[in-house]
Amino acid sequence: MDIMDRLMITTATFFTLCIIITIIVPWSEAAGQSTGNGLHVGFYSRSCPNVEKIVAEIVSKAHQDDLKLPAALIRIFSHDCLVKGCDASILLDATASHEPAEKQAQASEMLRGYELIDEIKDRVEEECPQTVSCADILAFAAREAVFLAGLPRHMVPAGRRDSRTSRASDITIPNPTTPFDEIIDYFSRRGITIDEMVVLSGAHSIGDAHCSFFDYRLYTFKKDQPQDPALNPSYASELSKTCPKPNTLNPAEAKQRAVELDPTTPLVLDNHYYLNLLQGKALLQSDQTMVTDPRTSGLVQQFASDPESWARRFAKAMIKMGRINVLTGNVGEIRKNCRAIN
Question: Which residues does the record give as substrate binding sites (predicted)?
Fold first, then answer.
């Protein structure tokens, strides 16, 4: 299973940020204007004026019982957008072609949050039948997840429509050992710049990773160098306590072993991710590479010292990611059930 795919945003919880961050997204970027692909803020102001309130209420209530929910929602939204566009294809159980759907791919097995999206969709359908797309519901839910993570709400342009197709074979996401140039190219082909890739990677300040995704850095990094020298030695020692050498645990227990991505503030969506990178405390090898690559090292240092700068840019990057290959107008459909085409 691809590691980076699992870790785009893995399950995690959030505390309120210890720093009060005010994010002002420029009006031209987030409100009152078309985004250039048919999306705009307030898309449902007449047809379903309470939809964003409904999403916020349901997500907030669910969060009370599941503090790891925000990361799950951000991750499923990111996964949907980065695979083939923000079209809710990740939510489909099957399609007319009977091919395995995206959610059936091995790389998708750790995704969760589908039931909550179902609950939101059912409630929205009661109020506004066949009006709000599953793709927009997912975007609104991800925004609420960011808010529950401790950052201010950002405005979400809407108007997406739902895909009628979903193929497991479409899922081709890099893993942490993928050459850095290939990772950059992957994001570039989706309209995400190197800078925006670094910004969005800050979401790794929350979540956890199963030992099998990184234990090679502890024990089998190279034939003549078992441990990755980029790992902070004391951090590596702590990791080994939770993640012993492979095959020393029974498979069931090994599968449950996980480590928080951020050892400092594991429950907060903040800039400590970048501080950790500078200290050699990144679980993912691809993340650690951002410290040494000259194209990204400057931004890592900037965000490590300026949390407000990162937070502002994170909101804008989330908005931009939410525009990737969207379906609008008469393309696609408005599903009645997010799990099935009409």
Answer: 174
Q: Is 202 annotated as a binding-site member?
A: no
Q: Is 5 annotated as a binding residue?
A: no
Residue 7: per-residue pLDDT:
37
pLDDT of residue 25: 34
Question: Do residue 299 and residue 195 come from a single domain?
Answer: yes
CATH number of the CATH domain containing 268: 1.10.420.10
- Lowest-confidence pick of 166-175, 187-196, 268-277, 316-325: 166-175
- Model confidence at 30: pLDDT above 70: no
Tokens of 204: 């790794």
Q: Is 83 annotated as a binding residue?
A: yes
Asked whether residue 85 is domain-assigned, the answer is yes
Residue 118 annotated in ligand binding: no
pTM: 0.85
Q: Which residues are catalytic?
A: 79
Q: Is residue 56 part of a domain?
A: yes
- What's the pLDDT tens digit per position in 218-241? 999 999 999 999 999 999 999 999
Which of 153, 171, 189 terminates a domain? The answer is 171
Domain that residue 243 falls in: 180-316
Helical residues (DSSP H) of 48-157, grouped into ranges:
51-65, 69-84, 114-127, 134-148
Question: In 109-219, which residue ranges form alpha helices assigned H by DSSP?
Answer: 114-127, 134-148, 180-188, 194-201, 216-219
168, 104 Cβ separation under 8 angstroms: yes
Sign of CA dihedral 69, 70, 75, 80: positive
Query: Do residues 13 and 137 share a domain?
Result: yes
Domain assignment present for residue 79? The answer is: yes
Number of domains in the chain: 2
> Which tens digit of pLDDT belongs to each residue from 184-213?
999 999 999 999 999 999 999 888 888 888
Contact 269, 146 (CB under 8 A): yes
- In this prediction, residue 31 carries a pLDDT of 35
